[in-house]
Specification:
Pfam families: Radical_SAM. The protein is α/β, with parallel strands linked by helices. The protein is built from 15 helices and 13 strands.
Length: about 375
């Protein structure tokens, strides 16, 4: 469920999100929430007509800033999905949350609405790093909001971190790691900063106002994070994700296993049985399509077998389970031999029939997979 609204656009963000000012909306967020949720519910009804019978194992409210929405409206979406499809008994329902947009009462209301997993956008615990990223939240709020989440009954609590921000020292990153591990959480996502063309941050780097990203320092920070998270009882289950036992994100795992999903909202992407499609990006055009009972789809593609295989390789290698050697041809296995010899691949798992990355191999995962793509 894509919620495309933010109070302010972060300098590094190139997601399909919009501020009320960009959309020239004068109504309050409550009114935006109510009217936009009506559109999502209408698209869910369209999904039912296309998909038919299905049981939903995960729902993910992403954005944008989903926590800007009213809990009663989030509840309406969950009810619509339940009414149209039904949920599995252990359905995971996640809400991405900006720490500055919730208090204890609102978190309790989201819990009552059906949210059972919450993910806070922490990014960093260091003020000057957040300033470079153009984030607006106060890092001191994280202990408060995560404790509130715990107190109102959330047992699955995650934080997102970003490392490699220009000007972020090793000491800064260690401070963020330590701050995250002090929180009552069972999941951490840590992503290397990617400077996307056209963003405010990219333009500032081009003008020389902000230094470029130091790739070697970024790699060192990944190793620091993995070491600290592991010692604290978090296990990596995907290149950028660590969890305590049972805390893995089932929704994200579904993506990495190339499962079927329906993405609702402006610019949302969907995948069903080898067909991929994506919605029109702008909220106004999305509203126009849905209001006319038209499909909001902008375009689609039917994946060729070679695309499906390439995506299987790209996604599988990100997981500890890796790629089964028996699914690779002799040329691919020969290409991988140097990586086995230099320790980028796990020798024990190789002997057991699996291509699985070692810790150092995770640093060059993209390079390895490029060399074995068909």
């Amino acid at each position: 469920m894509h919620i495309p609204y933010c109070v302010k656009r972060c300098g590094y963000c190139d997601f399909n999100t919009y501020t009320p000012a960009e959309l020239q909306i004068s109504e309050g967020l409550t009114q935006i929430s109510n009217s936009y949720i009506d559109l999502l519910i209408a698209e869910i009804a369209q999904a039912k007509l296309q998909v038919g019978q299905a049981s939903v194992p995960t729902i993910f409210f992403g954005g944008g800033t989903p926590s800007l929405m009213e809990p009663t409206d989030i509840a309406r979406v969950i009810s619509a999905i339940t009414d149209n499809f039904g949920l599995t008994d252990d359905c995971e329902i996640t809400l991405e949350t900006n720490p500055d947009t919730v208090d204890k009462a609102k978190l309790a209301a989201f819990k009552a609405a059906g949210i059972n997993r919450i993910s806070f956008g922490m990014q960093s615990a260091v003020a000057h790093v957040l300033k470079t990223l153009d984030r607006t939240h106060n890092p001191a709020n994280l202990p408060q909001v995560t404790n509130w989440a715990h107190e109102v009954g959330f047992t699955d609590i995650s934080v997102d971190l970003i490392y490699g921000t220009p000007g972020e020292s090793i000491a800064d990153w260690q401070e963020s790691i330590d701050a995250a591990l002090a929180l009552p959480i069972n999941h951490i996502s840590a992503y290397a900063l990617i400077v996307e063309e056209g963003t405010k941050l990219a333009n500032a780097i081009k003008r020389g106002e902000i230094a470029k990203v130091d790739d070697d320092l970024t790699a060192e920070k990944y190793l620091m994070a993995d070491n600290a998270f592991s010692k604290a009882g978090f296990t990596w289950y995907e290149l950028s994700n660590w969890s305590k036992s049972g805390g893995e994100s089932k929704h994200n795992i579904a993506y990495w296993l190339n499962a079927n999903w329906w993405g609702a909202g402006p610019g949302a992407h969907s995948h069903i049985n080898g067909k991929r499609w994506w919605n029109v990006k702008h909220p106004n055009l999305y509203k126009e399509k849905i209001s006319k009972n038209q499909s909001p789809t902008q375009d689609f593609e039917v994946l060729e077998p070679i695309q499906i295989e390439s995506e299987r390789l790209m996604l599988s290698i990100r997981l500890p389970e890796g790629i089964q050697k028996q699914t690779l041809n002799s040329d691919q296995l020969n290409t991988l031999s140097p990586y086995l010899e230099n320790g980028a691949l796990d020798a024990g798992k190789w002997a057991a029939g699996t291509v699985s990355l070692s810790l150092n191999g995770r640093l060059i995962a993209d390079r390895i997979v490029r060399e074995i793509l068909l």
